[in-house]
Amino acid sequence: MTTKSIPDLLRRSLESHMAEADLKNDEELKDILGKLSSLSEKVAAAKAQVLARRARASEET
Questions:
Q1: Separation CA 8–CA 38 (nearest Å)
Q2: Which spans in the chain are helix H?
Q3: Is 27 a member of any domain?
Q4: Rounded to an integer, what distance in angstroms lies between the CA atom of residue 56 and that of residue 7?
Q5: For 22, 28, 40, 57, which has the most beta carbons within 10 A of its beta carbon?
Q6: pTM for this structure?
Q7: DSSP secondary-structure letter at 36?
Q8: pLDDT tens digits, residue range 6-57?
């Protein structure tokens, strides 16, 4: 089972509000969405590193 990161959930929520015209698609929102995407990538990379370390540790035991 895969879970979504908090940045992914926030980005999807903002996109949903934008689609329902609760938010306007301006430069500030585009900037926020870009930063959330970048943060999401960093979270995924950190998660991958942790999983790789766990795998190596379990192989050593």
A1: 10
A2: 6-19, 27-60
A3: yes
A4: 28
A5: 40
A6: 0.76
A7: H
A8: 999 999 999 999 899 888 889 999 999 999 999 999 999 999 999 999 999 9
Q: 52: which 2 tokens?
A: 């790789």
Task: Tell me how far apart the alpha carbons of residues 35 and 12 are, in angstroms, rounded to a whole number.
Answer: 13
Report residue 27 as tokens: 């430069």
Range of the domain at 55: 6-60
CA-based torsion, 5, 9, 14, 16: positive or negative: positive
Which residues make Cβ contacts (< 8 Å) with residue 39, sequence separation at least 6? 7
Residue type, 39: L
With 50 as the cut, is the pLDDT of residue 1 above it?
Answer: no
Domain count, the chain: 1
